[in-house]
Fold each of these.
Amino acid sequence: MDLLLMGYPRRSYVEGILLGRTTAKVIGMSPCDVLMIPENAEIGFSRILVGLDGSPHSMAAGQRALELALSYGGEVHGLTVLDVPVERSLRYGVLDEARHKNFTALQILARQGEKLGVPVITELREGSPDKHLVQYSQEHNMDLIVLGSYGRTGFNRLLLGSVVERVAALSSLPTLVVKRSYGNQEAAVN
């Protein structure tokens, strides 16, 4: 299979997080991409939001978003959200290093979009990734959110939840979770 589709009813945030564990397990164990579709949501590809953090998983999500936009005549919005804990941000250069790494990921996405002829809009924000992804999707009337997955299923991840789970719980948009690399993407940022 290339894609697993999962529909789910709209729930409160707390219900979504608590009941989303099955979804998290399916995503973690799935060998292919997972498209989560909330109740009453429409699937569109005109305005695609992709969350980038510079990891190979997020860069694969960026590539997939570009391919979808190219196929359906859409545009891609790349959003990076810096979530640096206060105790780390006080160290000299940590915040600047994080900005540089993530800005580079946005530049790679923009260059790939330019090569393909896909319009790409990029933005860098600071704060909680899940909240900013959902907020941006609402502010800019996105059709789809695309995120990369590390596929973790360990105890620590289950306690903390994942950005994917929290976005799915907060957003009324379909969310595509990319599980593998696509096409001939440029090297991911270290």
Note: Residues 12 and 169 are 8 Å apart (CA to CA).
Amino acid sequence: MSLTFASAAANALPLHVLDMEGFDEWLRAQPPTARTWITASGFQPTTGKSLLVPDSTGAPIMALGGYGSAASRARARFPLAAIAANLPKGTYTLANELPDGDLDTELLGWLLSAYTFDRYTKRTVGSARLICPKGVDAIRIESLAAGEALTRDLINTPASDMGPAALEESARLLAQTFDAAIKVATGEDLLAQNFPMIHAVGRAAAQHRAPRLIDIRWGNTGPALTLVGKGVCFDTGGLNLKPGNSMALMKKDMGGAATVLGLAHMIMSLNLPLRLRVLIPAVENAVSADSFRPGDILTSRKGLTVEINNTDAEGRLVLADALALASEDTPDLLISMATLTGAARVAVGPDLAPYFTDDAAFAAALESSATETSDPVWRLPFWEPYEKMIEPGIADLDNAPSGGMAGSITAALFLRRFASDQRYAHFDIYGWNPSPAPARPKGGVAMGARAILNALPKLLDL
């Protein structure tokens, strides 16, 4: 797959992107032969429809693409990508301005329409190439596409080939590509370096899938941004074993790690003037004689004790140690991303990236950016009255409050205890697209990364 723009070509076919509101007027302005062909073909510019228009010899002289109506575009993302998916193989150039919408976002959608996960079987998609219009920052758009593709590839790869060691190798490759520093604490070294909860969650896995903390640093000047991503490469639920149906998609439980790595790729490839740190606790929540147990009490890196009431609430445990480490550096902005709770998925579904923050300025900048980039988010509250739900009495914190109420909020409150008093946001993402859509095939997907990237200039005064 090539998630890049085509080079200029003499034989590039002009593509007219047409919407329902302006189609009749445009059609009347066409030469009679073209108008007759288009009318006889029954073409209407509904979303994704395409048509090649020939000259008198039968050779195509232009292509038409349906951009739908304003109402249909308000309900779906990347309508230009829907056109790209239906065009014949070839090179195209935009013949007109888009009826509305953000051109950069629509061009990104075109590139992402060529994405396919073909590690295990070969598939051909995205054969229509586009020449980037003049005045558009092609390098930026290609960087976003590459970061998104990295996230998708990592999530889509099954746990057989994406355990903690493989996730580390992916992180090392990223660091090497951008000359970033990386260090990794693994296995028993986690205890020596005071990451006891990461060790406890991952210690039941086979030795070659031992738990680890991945720590990447890049950049020497500017404000400090730290990204923490949940890297649970597979989640059986531990001794609180998941039923089979709930385990089927657990290869995506490292979606937070995949998303922060994709976002890091974007930041570094665009050479943003900041100091970036990426922390990934990478584990497999397996079952063995050494599994941590319900009723255990763990002591975290921060010194807070945690009662284990459900071993299937393990993500917040590994994130807690990583957040405690991140807070010791007091970054200007700390963000955690995790496929953390089913409650978040139930609340907002698979399309929205729910997030938590106490910072009104962060929320305003993020939500404006999310609209601009077609990367939707939804704010949920750090609801203070629920703090008592995560305090079991026998320990400082409860990793899985009983009752099933407000599961995403209580998980976020748990994490906030380890983020200290600083600018912090937590994203409880789903990381999976259950139904194919333009530029968004079924499978792993980044959520919130582009919205964050676009908001960073405001958030960090870049």
Note: The chain has two domains: 13-136, 142-459.
